[in-house]
Write a structure and sequence with these properties.
The protein is α+β, with helices and mostly antiparallel strands and 202 residues long. The protein has two domains: 3-134, Impact, N-terminal domain (Ribosomal Protein S5, domain 2); 137-200, Alpha-Beta Plaits. Helix content is 30%, strand content 37%. The strands form three sheets. It has a five-stranded antiparallel β-sheet, with helices on both faces. The model has no long low-confidence stretch (mean pLDDT 93).
Length: 202
């Protein structure tokens, strides 16, 4: 595995819980890769906790030039989203969304109390999950005549490449997913086979 193409994230959704002076802070941490996906998770958590007063969150996407966002959802500025993002950064995670649902207990916690609560709930949610190292992947689309199929399939089998979509006719189409570290080698090999069109999808 080429370490320059790896990142740390969570394997699956995990949860945490922090209680303080009657308020309950439920933390959710999940792998997530873009803003649209984040909105879907947030809408789902909001629906599951429709009696909660706040749903604060932070996310971090990317490998080097990170995309980050925080949201305090009505809590005092920088008392919720920023501490959540701080935990994501502390664990050196990316491609992750952490949301904290707050059920108000009737007693104000103050800025310091809120920072502690959101930070701790985020930390619990992350620690209750499984942190994994993932390798970046590339998706390619290959278009080729049917007679080239044995060569293509031999290459795919040799490198244990995952097929995402296949359409075998006189003109064939394959969409494949492979580790980023193999991309240059695979594309170079494919280009040496005549009558092949290659498109990088992502």
């Amino acid at each position: 595995m080429n370490l320059s193409y790896t990142y740390k994230t969570l394997e699956n959704l995990s949860e945490g819980l922090y209680k303080e002076k009657g308020s309950k802070f439920i933390g959710y941490a999940t792998p997530c890769y873009n803003e649209l996906e984040a909105k879907e998770f947030l809408n789902s958590w909001k629906k599951d906790n429709n009696q909660a007063r706040h749903l604060c969150y932070a996310y971090r996407f990317g490998l080097t030039n990170f995309t980050t966002r925080t949201n305090d959802d009505g809590e005092p500025s920088n008392s919720a989203g920023t501490p959540i993002l701080g935990q994501i950064q502390s664990f050196e995670l990316t491609n992750i969304l952490v949301g904290i649902v707050r059920y108000f207990g009737g007693t104000k916690l103050g800025i310091g109390g809120l920072i502690t609560a959101y930070k701790t709930a985020a930390k619990e949610a992350i620690e209750n999950g499984k942190i994994i190292i993932k390798e970046l992947e590339t998706q390619l689309e290959i278009n080729f005549p049917y007679e080239k199929l044995p060569q293509i399939m031999s290459l795919i089998k040799q490198h244990h490449i995952q097929i995402k979509l296949q359409d075998f006719n006189m003109l064939c189409k394959l969409q494949i997913e492979l580790p980023k570290s193999l991309e240059d080698n695979i594309i170079h090999t494919l280009k040496n086979i005549s009558l092949i069109e290659i498109t990088i999808l992502k």
